[in-house]
Amino acid sequence: MKKRGEKMTDQKPYGSVLLKAVDILDFLLEYPSSSLKEISDGLKMTNSTVLKILDTLLLVSYVSRDEKKNYRIGAKFRKYFNQDSKQVDLVETTLPYLERLQHQIDETIHLGILNMHEILYINKLDPKNQVIQMSSKIGITRPLYCSAMGKAVLAKFSAESYQKYLSTTELKKYTVHTMIDAAEIETEIEKNS
Q1: What is the C-alpha separation between 81 and 86, in angstroms, rounded?
Q2: CA 147 to CA 145: how far, in whole Å?
Q3: Which end of the chain, N or C, is more open, meaning fewer C-beta atoms within 10 Å of its C-beta?
């Protein structure tokens, strides 16, 4: 039990292996399809430590390993990303197609679903040969009006649904490039649909 005035950060963690496992899972969220060496080097842990933890995470399906021995977040762990079983199936079903697309264009590939008035990222593949990578992460959401995937979804809205969306959504700037003028957003959507 913590003493009065004692901060949570003052508490000592129980089980450093669990903390290392969290670091590995965080790494795989950021860099899906990573090799043992990439994970070890990225986290500055020994190969043997990372392999033991990965083997345990594999056993409970929190990570998966492909035929090239690259690791990614597993299907069982994905359920904690506010997804139901249909979305987990969607991730697994679409993965080969996303990997093929990524191999062809070597760009960041996202898979997302409409979640209220936002896009929920449920999968992400980073480019293999590019230094600059997107900061998006699996499990985060973005407003429809300020992401490419969101604008693609808006392009499929009926005129009535689109107007309702605009009337109920506060258009805020997230970056210097975020469009917050409704007419400008509509022009962008029409130009790219």
Answers
A1: 13
A2: 6
A3: N
Q: Whole-angstrom Cα distance, residue 147 to residue 111? A: 13
- Per-residue tokens: 125: 């593949």
d(CA 152, CA 137): 19
Q: Are 164 and 158 in contact (CB under 8 A)?
A: no
**At 34, is the secondary structure helix, strand, or coil?**
strand
Q: Is the pLDDT of residue 38 over 90?
A: yes
Which tokens sit at 62? 């929190």
- In angstroms, the CA 120 to CA 99 distance is 19
User: Over the stretch 163-174, which tens digit does the pLDDT of each residue have?
Assistant: 888 888 999 998
Give the DSSP per-residue string, 94-129.
Answer: HHHHHHHHHHHH-S-EEEEEEETTEEEEEEEE--SS
In 23-117 the beta strands, taken as DSSP E runs, fall at: 63-65, 71-73, 109-115
Nearest to 119 by CA among 82, 153, 158: 153
Using the predicted structure, report yes or no on whether residue 1 has a pLDDT greater than 50: no
Global pTM value = 0.53
- Please say whether the beta carbons of 72 and 63 come within 8 A: yes
The predicted-structure confidence for 88-113, as pLDDT tens digits, reads as follows 578 888 888 998 998 899 888 999 98
